[in-house]
Design brief:
single chain, 0% strand, elongated
Length: 69
């Protein structure tokens, strides 16, 4: 049995077809830096001159809420 979780779920696709699709979707690593670039962009838009007293805790909360919108 392979040690790689992705290979295990590819082998299990006949037994658990729906669950294996979900697992493969979330176990595949990102090949780009797009998610981190989006976060930096949203941080720049959120942290501006009008919000210069925003603490890091509140900034994290705002970015979290923007992500789930």
């Amino acid at each position: 049995m392979p040690d790689d979780a992705l290979l295990i779920w590819k082998d299990m696709c006949k037994v658990y077809p729906i669950l294996s699709k979900v697992a493969v979707k979330y176990l595949v690593p990102f090949a780009t830096s797009v998610p981190s670039e989006r976060l930096v962009s949203k941080t720049g838009l959120t942290l501006n001159k009008q919000r210069n007293r925003l603490t890091s805790k509140h900034l994290n909360q705002l970015l979290f809420f923007k992500r789930i919108e």
